[in-house]
Write a structure and sequence with these properties.
Elements lengths: L4 E4 L9 H16 L3 E4 L13 H12 L22 H13 L3 E4 L3 H9 L20 H9 L5 E4 L6 E6 L3 E6 L7 E3 L7 H11 L4 E5 L6 H11 L5 E5 L2 E2 L8 H7 L5 H6 L4 H9 L14 H7 L10 E2 L2 H14 L2 H14 L6 H11 L8 H5 L12 H7 L4 H13 L6 H14 L5 H12 L7 H8 L1 H15 L1
Parallel strand pairs: 1-2, 8-9, 10-11
Antiparallel strand pairs: 3-4, 4-7, 5-6
Helix pairs in contact: 1-11, 6-7, 10-12, 13-14, 17-18, 17-19, 17-21, 18-20, 19-21
The structure holds one RNA strand of 75 nucleotides.
RNA sequence: GCCGCGUUCGUCUAGGGGUUAGGACGCCGGCCUUUCACGCCGGUAACACGGGUUCAAAUCCCGUACGCGGUACCA
């Protein structure tokens, strides 16, 4: 058995989106679980949709997630080049060999004559090809002349009549299609570029790909590819078509539908929003696959050791942002505090907050378990860095009673003269004050929290005060006393 | 329209002839607690429908419905 070789073959028509990452992930997991190799191949045969920085984005997105590839345009490898635009001659040569063997033909039809064909609801296939303008309907000599004169043309696959094309998909099982339902597919476009169908078959063969793992949307074209392999006399690789990721409302997870649901669509957006790469990977892995146990939280390397294609389901799955949030919280919590610091820094900077490492470390330690996304630190816990400017009105009504100002002021006075600003002392001083004023501790705790953070929710009060430090704590307490009265 | 693929709690899913149909997210309730989270405990909720096959069907077969995908000189 030869070594497993998998390719991830995106086309650079835009930034890598979440569905593409899922495909890449499954490719990676399968390759690694089999001890095989994975190659990144850029399918840039559509010049009209080419996006300049897309390739770069794809590479960075994979890197961010830790999906390392073995061969790629920048890494090189034994089957270079890995950009299809750089392999044009190969495709042309193979297409022509197909014409020679009678499996393909030149076609000169204008776009308007094809449009007319389709208007009559007819396909370009065995039943119509003889009415069209191609090398099947003209003498060899005429064809040669037209070709030599540089007339625009394409090369089409001559799909055989009345055969059933069948293949065994590793995920879907047996799939078969009657060749009558397959068009004479364009193999080489009039600009000389191959279509996906040709390029992908030629490259998979030449790059010794053993398994094609790609999205469900390719199932209908796979019979065309099988036909191509047969025409070339090649053995097709194994096929595995992954179920699609759907929008929560059911449709295709398009840019528009995703935006409406608040779902980031490009991988770079997940990064920008403070999602953990491991969480995104974990979430994606479980969209259509499960290990058969009840474990759910996995890192990439752990996934690699338990992944198998047999356990990939065949039904499409809806994207669930809440579940992703849960995975993110799980992975965020497992992060080493120093790594968390790195995660959180960009968000502080974005908000113009300059914070020293030691202090940030204290804060992170304090709120670590309460973060779901890294950016929560600045959105939920800004009071760790700047004095509160507003106080939650509901909190005021509920917690800032008539004696609050005097109690808080008293507490501030006691803190102000404290020598060791540790949690035990802070708590002792507060309870002592409560006792001497004959009130419950909560009568002070709550207004103090409100004064210091502007809200009624948050980490343990004494730990919070300790982190804020004496100067800040006292300043905020006194400030609240004057503001709230 | 035609072709293909699919259908278990709201969502992700386990289970594939005999199960109280299991887990996770979400939601609800409780415990913990100075608050809110975390955590823990408990609850809610599903085999699309109709026919077969069988002693027995969520599970196998056939239809129907619904959903999704494809139907390009896009991938």
């Amino acid at each position: 058995m030869s070594t497993v070789r998998i390719r991830f073959a995106p086309s650079p028509t835009g930034y890598l989106h979440i569905g593409g990452l899922r495909t890449a992930l499954y490719c990676y997991l399968f390759a690694r679980s089999q001890g095989g190799n994975i190659v990144l191949r850029i399918e840039d045969t559509d010049r009209t949709r080419f996006v300049e920085d897309a390739e770069d984005d794809i590479v960075q997105a994979l890197e961010w997630c830790g999906l390392e590839v073995d061969e790629s345009p920048m890494l090189g490898g034994p089957y270079a080049p890995y950009r299809q635009s750089e392999r044009q001659d190969l495709y042309r040569k193979h297409a022509e060999s197909l014409v020679d063997s009678g499996h393909a033909y030149y076609a000169f039809d204008t776009s308007s004559s094809i449009a007319e064909l389709r208007k009559n609801n007819e396909a370009y296939n065995a039943s119509t090809r003889l009415q069209m303008d191609n090398s099947l309907t003209h003498s060899e000599e005429v064809v040669r002349m037209r070709l030599e004169s540089g007339e625009e043309h394409v090369i089409r696959l001559r799909v055989p009549e009345n055969v059933t094309v069948q293949f065994n998909d590793l995920i879907k099982g047996s799939v078969s299609v009657d060749s009558a339902n397959i068009d004479d597919q364009v193999l080489v476009k009039s600009d000389g570029m191959p279509t996906y169908h040709l390029a992908n078959v030629v490259d998979d063969q030449h790059m010794a790909i053993t398994h094609v793992i790609r999205g469900d949307e390719w199932i209908p074209s796979t019979p065309k590819h099988i036909l191509l392999y047969q025409a070339f006399g090649w053995q097709p690789p194994a096929m595995a078509h992954l179920p699609l990721i759907l929008s929560p409302t059911g449709g295709k997870l398009s840019k528009r539908s995703a935006q409406r649901q608040g779902i980031p669509i490009n991988v770079r957006d997940y990064r920008a929003k403070g999602f953990e790469p491991q969480a995104v990977i974990n979430f994606l892995a479980f969209l259509g696959w499960n290990p058969g146990t009840e474990d759910e939280v996995f890192e990439l390397e752990e996934l690699t050791s338990v992944f198998s294609l047999e356990r990939v389901g065949s039904a499409p799955a809806k994207f669930d942002l809440d579940k992703l949030g849960w995975f993110n919280a799980q992975h965020l919590r497992r992060l080493d505090i120093e790594v968390l610091l790195e995660r959180v820094r960009p968000f502080l900077e974005k908000h113009g907050m300059i914070v020293e490492d030691d202090y940030l470390r204290d804060v992170c330690f304090l709120v670590h378990d309460r973060l779901q996304q890294a950016q929560d630190l600045v959105t939920h816990f800004s009071y760790c860095f700047v004095d509160p400017v507003t106080f939650d009105p509901v909190g005021i009504r509920k917690r800032w009673k008539s004696d609050a100002a005097s109690l808080v002021d008293d507490y501030a006075a006691r803190l102000d003269v404290l020598r060791s600003f540790n949690e035990e002392t802070l708590e002792f001083k507060l309870r002592d004050l409560a006792a001497s004023r004959k009130v419950g501790a909560g009568r002070i705790i709550h207004p103090v929290r409100l004064a210091v953070s502007g809200t009624t929710a948050g980490p343990g009060l004494f730990a919070l005060l300790r982190v804020l430090g004496r100067r800040t704590s006292v300043r905020r307490l006194r400030n609240a006393v004057t503001r709230l009265g």
